[in-house]
Write a structure and sequence with these properties.
By secondary structure, the protein is an alpha/beta fold. Among the domains are: 192 residues, FAD/NAD(P)-binding domain, CATH 3.50.50; 104 residues, Orthogonal Bundle (Guanine Nucleotide Dissociation Inhibitor, domain 1), CATH 1.10.405. It has 16 helices and 19 strands. The radius of gyration is 22 Å and the shape is globular. The chain binds flavin-adenine dinucleotide. The site of flavin-adenine dinucleotide has 37 residues, from helix 1, strand 14 and helix 16.
């Protein structure tokens, strides 16, 4: 039995903790904040409840697979509902496309926009399903140790898709700009532009249209609570308000942590905190990646978020609503090519209280608004206010209702908060993007090359950003550790 210290309590750390405790180790999780969950924490205020970070529950099979590894089901911990509609996309006033809960219904919506598009969609989805079977059932569960992991009889047949992009493949088949935007939307979760995301990642389209969008009662935080409960059932000790200040290494072995000035011994250290920050806790000679390395990576966007309590029920919106009424390319350039605050931003809004009465007092609405941004921008209160006004007036106009006078309160979260709360590199929201050159074995490694018993997990490592990949990352790192213990 090893004494294993885990830094952070996001999805990846909690997953790793569960697997390592199941393998019989003494596991302690150290979280700097006063609650667990990392980017998936929860905000409660005046009877309103908001997920601070993730709000889309996609790939339910990955969650099920995680809990089944412990002979559990998600239903032992939380209640899931499949959303219908899954979401609505607003392209302008009275210009919306609603994505419902089956491919049949989505085909009807496509056909209304572009004649013949439903046939193309079925073909596209069949490829997407094929990719999903290869990627999510198998490839993403490989630890990124060697390039050979990616070479299987099935992936060899798909090699062309690694060198084409989602954007190219979608545009080969579809001409209607709205349908193109909808089909390019799912890969935004992977953090890069669709024109930089390998076509093989169309498995995200299967996650979207094939599997659908789910909602766990009380929000995504109930998944964190489920994992915390499971970890504790397995014997994990979880400590909050424990900011790790240093990882102590002697002769290339991590021997412990310094937390709030106290030294604690460990046999193995795992970090689910942002990779760049974790390396800053090591002496420079034990760091694997230079500042130049990090500055050359393609990071997933940061975000400006607002959590708003409205004193009335809103109309003409869905639980998940996307506002694509401006030029996507221009906003994407401001995120990836020439980082700056966008002139006219796309934004996403979520109203969990449409589905879940726990999220707001009766006849009130809880609203979350998210504008994707380049990491590292100057973040000041005046700019946040300016953008709130910008998106609220567009929101009022497009959804045809007055909302500004019904705001009871609003809280914001942006780049400076990502840095202060999570030690996030340049305030990135969801890690390192999945571009071709940042896929699998090309991502920062789960195991340190310089410190023998030091491991990393989470959205900056393998397999990548998002809640399902973070769960998988925890499993992968625990597997590597266990393999190393049993072979040494
Ligand atoms: C706004 C937003 C929206 C998102 N939307 C979605 C979505 O809808 N669906 C989806 O699947 N994914 C979404 N994501 C991505 C998803 O939330 C993340 O990929 C996932 O939660 C990352 O988990 P993690 O374990 O890698 O890291 P984190 O959650 O960041 O956990 C790292 C933890 O380490 C802690 N830590 C840092 N430094 C220290 C230290 N020195 N000592 C101790 N602890 C430390 C941090 O406090 C944090 O708790 C979203 C993310 C954001 C931010």
């Amino acid at each position: 039995m090893k004494n294993i210290s885990i830094i952070g309590s996001g999805f990846s750390s909690l997953a790793a903790a569960c697997y390592l405790a199941q393998a019989g180790h003494k596991v302690t999780v150290f979280e700097k904040n006063n609650t667990v969950g990392g980017r998936a924490r929860q905000l409660t205020r005046d009877g309103f409840t908001f997920d601070i970070g993730p709000s889309w529950y996609w790939m339910p099979d990955v969650f099920e697979r995680f809990f089944s590894d412990f002979n559990k089901k998600t239903t032992h911990y939380y209640k899931l509902t499949k959303l219908n509609p899954a979401y609505t996309v607003f392209f302008g006033k009275d210009e919306t496309i609603t994505i419902e809960d089956t491919l049949e219904k989505i085909c009807i919506a496509f056909e209304k926009e572009e004649s013949g598009s439903s046939i193309k969609l079925r073909k596209f989805m069949s490829e997407a399903l094929d990719n999903y079977q290869i990627a999510i059932k198998d490839l993403v569960y490989r630890p990124g140790v060697s390039p050979l992991e990616l070479i299987t009889p099935l992936t060899v047949k798909k090699i062309g898709q690694f060198f084409s992009t989602v954007s190219k493949e979608v545009r080969k088949e579809f001409k209607n700009p709205k349908l193109i935007s909808i089909l390019e939307f799912p890969v935004l979760f992977l953090g890069a532009k669709p024109s930089k995301t390998p076509a093989f990642y169309s498995f995200m389209n299967y996650a979207d249209f094939g599997l659908g969008t789910f909602y766990p009662e009380n929000g995504m935080y109930s998944v964190i609570q489920a994992m915390q409960a499971l970890a504790e059932e397995l014997g994990v000790t979880i400590k909050t308000n424990q900011k790790v200040e240093k990882i102590v290494v002697e002769d290339r072995n991590a021997v412990g942590l310094v937390i709030n000035g106290d030294s604690l011994a460990s046999d193995i250290v795992v970090s689910g905190a942002d990779y760049h920050h974790t390396e800053s806790l090591l002496e420079p000679k034990y760091r694997q990646y230079s500042e130049a390395y990090w500055s050359r990576r393609t990071f997933a966007p940061s975000a400006l978020l607002f959590y708003v309590g409205f004193s009335k029920k809103l109309k003409n919106v869905s639980h998940h609503s996307l506002f694509f009424d401006v030029d996507f390319e221009a906003h994407a350039r401001d995120i990836y090519d020439a980082p700056q605050w966008p002139e006219a931003p796309l934004f996403y809004a979520s109203f969990p209280s449409i589905t879940d009465t726990h999220c707001a007092p009766a006849d009130n609405e809880a609203g979350i608004f998210l504008i994707p941004l380049a990491p590292g921008l100057t973040d000041i209160q005046e700019i946040r206010e300016e953008y709130f006004e910008k998106i609220m007036s567009r929101f009022e106009n497009i959804t045809n209702q007055e909302v500004n006078n019904y705001v009871i309160f609003k809280e914001s979260f942006c780049i400076n908060d990502f840095i202060a709360d999570y030690n996030s590199y340049k305030g990135n929201a969801y890690g390192l993007a999945n571009t071709l050159m940042q896929t699998a074995f090309l991502r920062p490694k789960l195991k340190s090359k310089k410190v023998r018993n030091m491991f990393f997990t989470g959205q900056l490592s393998v397999p990548g950003p998002g809640v399902p990949p973070s769960l998988i990352s925890g499993k992968l790192v625990a597997g590597l550790i266990q393999k190393e213990i049993t072979t040494s």
